[in-house]
Amino acid sequence: MWTLAKKEWQHYFGNLTGYIAMTFFLVLCGVWLFFFPDTNLLDYGYASLQPFFEVAPWLMIMLIPTITMRSFAEELKSGTFELLRTFPLSNWQLVLGKYIGVLGVVFLTLLPTCIYPISIQMLSSRGGIDWGATAGSYLGLFLLSSCFAAIGLYASSLTQQVVVAFVVGAFLCFMVYVGVEAVSKLPIFSNQADYYIQQLGLQEHYKSISRGVIELRDVLYYAIIIGLFLGLTKRQIQMK
């Protein structure tokens, strides 16, 4: 399983696609945080990374399907999936190996952004940054990205076409993140029904953790979503 995860890392960083995607993410974050007038951290007046944690999920909706789109789709198209099935790996080990590989790439993508809170702390004249809330926000962002990774793997297992896997993955990530909340705001939902529907979406739990309050129900929710989509991916692999 770990060998498969290592293979995923080597495959992703073995060509320019991986480096371009990561560079694109970091450049967009930098431009958003330090150049755009409405989100410029230097004009905020206080030490906060709120603009970063607001825009990062939207960038991850596009970035993570880029990472996962080749995971199974390319294996199926090139015929190497049959070779992969000859390895002494169970279906769960196969899925988890791919998943761990994707999480490694996501972690390496987020790691350089740690320079943002350090820079803000150094530039702050008084008070400084709220490290507790910042740590909670980073945890929430990583858990959210982990859910997107599981969704992207599932999308990749559905088709042999890499582009289709990307489109389906990005669409599913978008719908699970904001689609559920949009549905909850429909006029037909009242008497607290909108609240319960909101709790089914990723965005509500991401906001909760980003406030620096880590509750067990939020962590369990992310674990259930990850387990659900990894289970669906395993079922697709088993069918093939």
Keywords, separated by commas or semicolons:
240 residues
Set down the secondary structure blueprint.
Elements: H1 2-13, H2 16-34, H3 50-68, H4 73-78, H5 80-84, H6 91-110, H7 115-123, H8 131-157, H9 162-184, H10 193-198, H11 202-210, H12 216-239
Written account of the structure:
The chain has 240 residues and is an all-alpha fold. It has one domain (2-239). It contains twelve helices and no strands. It is globular, with a radius of gyration of 19 Å. The two termini are 19 Å apart. The mean pLDDT is 81.
Q: Nutshell version of this structure?
A:
With 240 residues, the chain is mainly α. Helix content is 75%, strand content 0%.
The helix content, as a percent range, equals over 70%
* Alpha carbon gyration radius: 19 Å
What's the number of helices? 12
Structural class: mainly alpha
Number of strands: 0
Name the overall outline: globular
**How many strands, what sense, and barrel or not for the largest sheet?**
none
Query: What is the domain total for the residues?
Result: 1
Tell me, rounded to a whole number, the average pLDDT. 81
Distance from N terminus to C terminus (CA atoms, Å) equals: 19 Å
Q: Helix and strand succession?
A: HHHHHHHHHHHH
* Uncertain runs: none
Strand content: under 5%
